[in-house]
Amino acid sequence: xxxxxxxxxxxxxxxxxxxxxxxxxxxxxxxxxxxxxxxxxxxxxxxxxxxxxxxxxxxxxxxxxxxxxxxxxxxxxxxxxxxxxxxxxxxxxxxxxxxxxxxxxxxxxxxxxxxxxxxxxxxxxxxxxxxxxxxxxxxxxxxxxxxxxxxxxxxxxxxxxxxxxxxxxxxxxxxxxxxxxxxxxxxxxxxxxxxxxxxxxxxxxxxxxxxxxxxxxxxxxxxxxxxxxxxxxxxxxxxxxxxxxxxxxxxxxxxxxxxxxxxxxxxxxxxxxxxxxxxxxxxxxxxxxxxxxxxxxxxxxxxxxxxxxxxxxxxxxxxxxxxxxxxxxxxxxxxxxxxxxxxxxxxxxxxxxxxxxxxxxxxxxxxxxxxxxxxxxxxxxxxxxxxxxxxxxxxxxxxxxxxxxxxxxxxxxxxxxxxxxxxxxxxxxxxxxxxxxxxxxxxxxxxxxxxxxxxxxxxxxxxxxxxxxxxxxxxxxxxxxxxxxxxxxxxxxxxxxxxxxxxxxxxxxxxxxxxxxxxxxxxxxxxxxxxxxxxxxxxxxxxxxxxxxxxxxxxxxxxxxxxxxxxxxxxxxxxxxxxxxxxxxxxxxxxxxxxxxxxxxxxxxxxxxxxxxxxxxxxxxxxxxxxxxxxxxxxxxxxxxxxxxxxxxxxxxxx
Length: 655
Fold this sequence. Notes:
Strand 4 (191-206) and strand 5 (212-224) form a beta hairpin. Residues 1-31, 128-132, 136-141, 548-573, 590-617 and 638-655 have low confidence and may be disordered. The protein is built from 16 helices and 11 strands. It has helices at residues 2-22, 32-35, 61-65, 76-86, 88-94, 96-108, 253-322, 328-361, 368-372, 392-402, 404-425, 454-462, 482-545, 567-597, 604-635, 638-644; strands spanning 67-68, 71-74, 167-180, 191-206, 212-224, 231-246, 374-377, 430-446, 467-476, 552-553, 558-559. Among the domains are: 167-206 and 211-249 and 434-477; 269-406 and 494-644, Outer membrane efflux proteins (OEP).
């Protein structure tokens, strides 16, 4: 029987090596968290905490390097680099990938995957209570009938035991027992004192095919005050090797590696979650950059308006002193100065708010140096180009292929498909075949003076002097099987629900792409119109500067030829850079989102800006029509107004 025992042991070790290779991927292509610590040659390393990256809560050196003379001068490239390095939203999402790797490590041991935030772990994968892994039974041991007063035998059952991580358990105990007896025929005395020392060890492991292997060795040394024992003290030993293989329910890689498959899918989902957060942050940072640039222009425009209002007020005061204007005109110009001051305060407040929000996006914490620094944007608002608007079908195809939300939905569907297949397998009865080989030994000090110990007893067991062989079949047949039916129905219904959700998301993506294309087309047209309006306003200004007669025009709140931009021209200037700011946002979004990095959407603030632009444009057109209608009526009064206006040709009145 020795060759048979050796063949069984060799076969089991080969199966163990193949199973371990099946659940372990190539170490050179996986991060460290997936593999876990290596137990050799550092045997104690698996029982110590693993190393993780230290937490860094300081801003990157690049941020402080860009601060010079109290100013943070930023291009768009510098801004995006700082956001990638320091943005806290991105830093939070970076933890998802190592957490997913740790989940793969847990599932590789045979335990249930815990999942990550934003990824799906189907409830149908759980076996029994929530959180239970592949198999939690640990088996049992003992010395059997060896060392008794009669032989043994009977029913044998070897259950499926262990997990993918091999488990070794050792138990040692000392016992002293004193028992009264009711007969003298067996022990020869009225009470028995027994001293025992017991040692047991076991090794269990489960493989991805469903095969489980267990090895147990047990020994006990016992001395007693009984008079008719063959060996006293006696050493009793027994070892067993058991194998269990499911035939229907639980057979194959899917039922046993389901958590590993789901954890691997969730690790890919974690990458998409990070990519989505990076994309959203990039969109937010670019919008904030152009908003800050627009806020800077708004402050400059408000300062120019205040300067115009103050010069007009000073000129009005000078004319009031010489009696060429009515006193009521001074009230009007003073009101204009106050309104211009209010607009300047609002513009500066908006700039400070935009600057504070911008600093938050680019830093992990706002220290004293960053708080005191003022931000200056270096890039100009982009001009529209012929390549800014992609072809519609190309844009839709790129969005449907690369949107992170769609990729994450596909990963969730893959997880749900694993659940549906697992619950379908769980509908079958539980049928297991098992085999057992055991050997027993008995040695000690006998009445003839022969002395033997644990070595002799173990040799008898390993040499199969007292062998035991067993094989069997175990069948568990649920009569109504309602729990498995319910799990399978729910898994398939949830699978269809995810398919409908994916189709709904595709429609939403298509709608957002079309909305972004329309917004981009309108933005480009608005910028071109604003540039043309500003060009015409400059021509009007140049014509007024060449005029040698200076005419005071109350409705323009300025002097022609004085070098001050008339009110309609200022409106055109403000509308031009407002429109260019919105276009810069619209241009950046489709390019970025069609390159598999983001979604295409139109924010509420952009919609409000467009509505405001339309209202301003309508008001300006009505005003121009009224001015055109009144032009002929006012033409015959110009000579009279010129005579009443105190002016010298080619010499400005104010400053």
